[in-house]
Amino acid sequence: MSEVGNLAAWLLNDALSNGAGPRPALRTLKLQRGERVLILMHDTIEAAVAILAVIHAGAVAVPVSELSTPDDVQEYVLHGAAVIAIVDEPHEQVVDAVRAETPDLREVISVRASLPGVHDYQTLVDGAAPQPPVPMGEADISLLLYSAGSGPGELRAVPHSKRTIAAANNSFARDLLQLTSADKILSVARLSTAYGLGAGLLLPLAVQAECLLFPAQPRSDTVFKAVETFNPTVLFATPSVYAQLAHDAESGGIAKPLARLRHAVAGAEGMPERLIPRIRSVLGTEVVVGYGLTEIFQFALAGRSDDPGARPGVCGKPLTGVQVRLVDEDGDPVGIDEIGTLELMCGSLFTGYWGGTTDSGLHDLKSDGWFTTRDRFMVDREGFYHHCGRVDDLFKVGGKWVSPSEVERALVAHEAVWEAAVIGADDDEGLMKPLAFVVTNVGHEAGPKLEAELKEYVKASLAPYK
Question: Which among 390, 415, 445 is the end of a domain?
Fold first, then answer.
């Protein structure tokens, strides 16, 4: 676990506030204003400092998932035109594997570098002279986040600026959660996502709150230990994490381990109706359930499970400063208790995808400033919004989007598979998991052995959660 601690003191100690640290090291590598820097790291102090250092140097931080494969990284580097990559030791080989195919990637910086041609993170920091921060305007791009659901060849990179992040802080951190410097924040959401980057770094930084990050994927025992020792007031996690915590608390005889929280926040995937009563009875806390988007860097809809009139399975109401509307296929508004596609507009809304991609006209900005999502909702007479599915076939697993066609292509590449179809199916907790139907090739026999082999094959070809 990495404790960011009091962020004001941390920034001072790391010398970002007075011109030392990683920022001048990046300038010595001739990093120019607006250039992109890929960050492929576990959620450590070094990762958090790297993101802030890139921004302070006037460049654009591009954090990507620590589960990224070499093929993923190659696509990110080429699409975002990254000129520098900052990695940690476990990911050094991942980036090195694609350097021949990414000639514009000038430099690679690694924590505890071990490969030839790779700069050592600490050596660069120690040898750099202090430099002042690069002045940035309110609308200058400082972050590039890859929108969940991007499939092969159709990446959607979402730019954000000081303006959009400040707006997200106002409506999400200040008005919804009322975060202050007295809060202690525990975040197990990844810094490579808008949800995790806001919860684990930028929003705590805005209010000078303490925060604890998890470099590894969270396990129940480590989360329970962090809750006991760190004594957080706010926990950010996915419904999948809360489900695992409830299961392990119940089986381990741990009584209401989250009872002291001020807020337990759940985002990045759908919340099963049956899970909220278990969070309340087993973990001892109410939960703030939200529906958010990378494109707005925050929740658009949210509500606490004990709000007046709230019911399991609803996504709450629009946040302060977020305008929403539901429209039919012709773009006309739908009525109460009718299903429509969600459109929204707010101060934290991005201004367009990196490179101007429009994704065939879907999931895009309209000329009137409204943004069309890929999600369908229904609003009831009390003003609560109910999620009614997607306009496409993507689904989320553990807070990460899965494209059925991508998994199907991986399966069909195996010699034993003739055809494959993948859908999302609920597990025993009501959480979405990929379910594959496979037709075997001649000479191959279906059974548990082939099932296990195909799982390992897909896991080796794609990110493990898929």
Answer: 390
Residues 111 and 252 occupy one common structural domain: no
Domain co-membership, 364 together with 236: yes
Q: Do 407 and 382 belong to one domain?
A: no
Chain-centre distance of CA 447, in angstroms? Answer: 36
Report pTM. 0.81
Q: Are residues 237 and 366 in the same domain?
A: yes
Q: pLDDT tens digits for the chain (466 residues)?
A: 454 444 333 443 444 444 445 656 676 778 899 999 999 999 998 899 899 889 988 999 999 999 999 999 999 999 999 999 999 999 999 999 999 999 999 999 999 998 998 999 888 877 777 777 788 889 999 999 998 655 445 788 999 999 999 999 999 999 999 999 999 999 999 999 999 999 999 999 899 898 988 888 889 999 999 999 999 999 999 988 998 999 999 999 999 999 999 999 999 888 877 789 999 999 999 999 999 999 999 999 999 998 888 877 788 999 999 999 999 888 899 888 888 889 999 999 999 898 754 444 444 677 788 999 988 888 989 999 988 777 766 666 765 656 676 688 788 888 888 778 888 887 877 777 888 998 887 778 889 999 999 988 888 877 665 5
For residue 42, what are its two tokens?
Answer: 């576990």
Residue that is written with structure tokens 């707010």 in the block:
346
283 lies in the same domain as 325: yes
Q: How far is 304 from 61, CA to CA, in rounded Å?
A: 33
DSSP string over 374-432: EEEEEE-TTS-EEEEEESSS-EEETTEEE-HHHHHHHHHTSTTEEEEEEEEEE-TTS-E
Residue 125, domain CATH: 3.40.50.980
Residue 408 sits in the same domain as residue 386? no
